[in-house]
Amino acid sequence: MKVPLLDLKPHHDPIQPALIAAFERVMRSQMFILGPEVEALERRIASYCQTEFAIGTSSGTDALLLALMALEIGPGDEVITTPYSFFASAGVVARLGARPVFVDIDPLTYNMDANRVEAAVTARTRVIMPVHLFGQCADVAPLLKIAEAHALRVVEDAAQAIGAEHADGRRAGSVGAFGCLSFFPSKNLGALGDAGMVLTNDPELAERARVLRVHGSKPKYHHHFIGGNFRLDALQAAMLAVKLDHLDGWTRARQAHAQLYVRLLEARGLVTDGSVTPPPAPSRGLDRPGHHIYNQFVIRARRRDALQKFLAEHDVGTEVYYPVPFHQQPCFQYLGYKDGDFPEAERAARETLALPVYPELTSEQQIYVMDTIREFYSHG
Q1: How far are the Cα atoms of 26, 81, 106, 258, 290 from residue 136, in angstroms, in the given order?
Q2: Mind listing the pLDDT tens digit for each residue in 86-107?
Q3: pTM (2 decimals)?
Q4: CA gyration radius for the chain?
Q5: Superfamily for 247-378?
C-alpha cells in the first residue's frame, strides 16, 4: 500500500467545481490584487479566529514580518521565541536587524516552555513570540502576564494552528497584539500557492499593518512609512473562501485520525515498550475544532532515522520537522549559542517524525502505517 505524507488531489477533487467557479468569478472581475475578494475573506477569517481585524498577506512569513514591522521592531531589539520551528519564526526577527533570543521547548508539546521565558527577558526585549507548533497552542497565559509585567508585546505565530484553541477557549492568534497565519498549500487551510493573514484586535495596529502592506502608502503614492509589498492576491482569497467552508470538517477528520493512530500504537504495544511516544491527545471533543488541530501528527520514535528509512521502503511518506534547531543553523552562529544550550529542542530534532494525517487518509492506510512501524520494531 502507498501512503503519501500528503495527498492534495483527493483533498481538492470534491470541491473542484466550486474552486473553478471562484476562479472564473475573479477572472470576470479582472481585480487580481486585494479588492473585494480579499476584504470578504478577511472578514470571514477574523470571525473564525475571534478577532476584530484580519489583514491578508502574501505568505505566512510576510505575516510575521508585517506584524513585527507594525510594532517597530528593529536593530537593538530582542524577540524571545523558540529554537524549534519553521525558519521564518526566527528569520523575520533577524531580517529586521533585531536579535532572536531562544528559549527551550516543552518535551511533551514541543512548544516554547513558558516557565523558562522570564529568565530570558532583558532591557532590550520587546516581543515574546510563541509558536503554536504542529497545531497545538502554546501556553500563552503566563506569557501574557510576563508581557504585562515588562511592558512587552506578544505575537502569536499561529501558522500551523488556525482554529486551535487556548485553554480558555479563545482561538489561536486572538490573544496577542498580533496573530499570524499561513495558508501554505500543506496547511489545514491551504491556498493554491502562498498566502497568509495577520490578526489583531487593535484598530491602530490593524491600520498600521494595512498601510505597511502596501509600501507604507496612504493615500496612493504618499508614503508615511517604509513598508513592503505584502498583498494577498484576489485569486488566492477566492480559493481560500471556498475551502474555509470545509475547514472544521477537515479538522475533525484529522483529530479522528490522530485518535485512531494512538489506539493503534497502544494496541500494538509500541507505546508501553517505549518505541513510540504519540503527541498529546486533544483536550476537547470532536464536536468542535478543539485544542489540537493536528496540522502534523508527530511521534517521538526510538531509532528515528532507521524507522523513517524503513517506512520509505514500504511506501509510507514521513517528514522530519525540524532536523536542525535554530541555534545550530550556520546563519545564526553569530548569536553565540552552542550545542547543548537547548537540550529539549535538540532531542526533538533527533527523535521526532511526522506521519500522514491529511483528512482523506483512510483507516486502512493508517493500519498499514502502524503495522509497518510494528514490523520495524519487532525485527529489533
Answers
A1: 34, 16, 12, 13, 9
A2: 999 999 999 999 999 999 999 9
A3: 0.94
A4: 21
A5: Aspartate Aminotransferase, domain 1 (3.90.1150.10)
